[in-house]
From TrEMBL:
Transmembrane segments: none annotated. This is nicotinamidase. Gene3D superfamilies: Isochorismatase-like (3.40.50.850). It is an enzyme of class 3 (hydrolase). SUPFAM superfamilies: Isochorismatase-like hydrolases. Pathway: Cofactor biosynthesis; nicotinate biosynthesis; nicotinate from nicotinamide: step 1/1.
C-alpha cells in the first residue's frame, strides 16, 4: 500500500503577513518538509483564484469578509481576496521544499465556484482529477498536512475517506482559521467520516 503526503495550500497568502493569514501558518513549514521523506509520493495543492472570484467579499457589494452568502451549491464564506492567479501571495511559502512534489494540483480557478477540497469543488460533484491520479499510481494511503485545518485540509480528508482512501490528518502539521467554532466542527466531521486524526 503506497503512501502519499498531500500538502494543502502552503501558500504565502495563508501565512502571517498574507491576505488570509492563518495564525502560526509558517510554523508548520519545517515539520512538513521533514515529513516528506517518509512518503512514497508528495502532492501539493495550490489555491488559485481569478481576481473576480465569487468567494471574495470584494466581489459582493456591501458584504463583509468572513460573512456567509448563499451560492447555488450551498452556503459559502466570503473571504478577503487571496491567492489571486499570478500574484506573489498565490506562491508557495518560500521555505517549502518543492523538490519532492510529484504533482501540484490547482483548485478554485473557476469564477463561480470555490474549491476547498483537493478532490471536488464545493458543489461536491465537480472532480479535480486528483482521485484518478492517486488511484492510477496505487497511492491508497493518504496523510494530510497544511492550511487550513478546518477548511481545505478537513474537506480534502473527508472526501478522501468517502472515496475509499485511507485518510489521516497530521494535526501537528496543520493550523486552523477557527471561524465560529469551525475547528471543532471540522474535527467532528472528520472523525464521523472515518478520518484518523494523528
Ligand atoms: C482556504 C479559505 C479560502 C484554505 C482556501 O486553504 O483552507 N480557506 N480558500
Ligand atoms: Zn481560496
Amino acid at each position: 500500500m503506497a503512501r502519499a503526503l498531500i500538502v494543502i495550500d502552503m501558500q504565502t497568502d495563508f501565512c502571517p503577513g498574507g491576505a488570509l493569514a492563518v495564525a502560526g501558518g509558517d510554523e508548520i513549514v519545517a515539520p512538513i518538509n521533514r515529513l516528506m521523506a517518509g512518503f512514497d509520493a508528495v502532492v501539493l495543492t495550490q489555491d488559485w483564484h481569478p481576481a473576480d472570484h465569487a468567494s471574495f467579499a470584494t466581489n459582493h457589494p456591501g458584504a463583509t469578509p468572513f460573512s456567509l452568502t448563499d451560492m447555488p451549491y450551498g452556503p459559502q464564506v466570503l473571504w478577503p481576496p487571496h491567492c489571486v492567479i499570478g500574484t506573489p501571495g498565490a506562491g508557495f511559502h518560500p521555505g517549502l521544499d518543492l523538490s519532492r512534489a510529484d504533482l501540484v494540483i490547482r483548485k478554485g480557478f473557476r469564477r463561480q465556484i470555490d474549491s476547498y477540497s483537493a478532490f471536488f469543488e464545493n458543489d461536491h460533484a465537480t472532480p479535480t482529477g486528483l482521485a484518478g491520479y492517486l488511484r492510477e499510481r496505487g497511492l491508497s494511503d493518504l496523510s494530510f498536512a497544511g492550511l487550513a485545518h478546518d477548511f481545505c485540509v478537513a474537506w480534502s480528508a473527508v472526501d478522501a475517506a468517502r472515496l475509499g482512501f485511507s485518510a489521516t490528518v497530521i494535526e501537528g502539521a496543520t493550523r486552523a482559521i477557527d471561524l465560529n467554532g469551525s475547528r471543532d466542527r471540522a474535527r467532528a466531521e472528520m472523525r464521523e467520516a472515518g478520518v484518523i486524526l494523528e
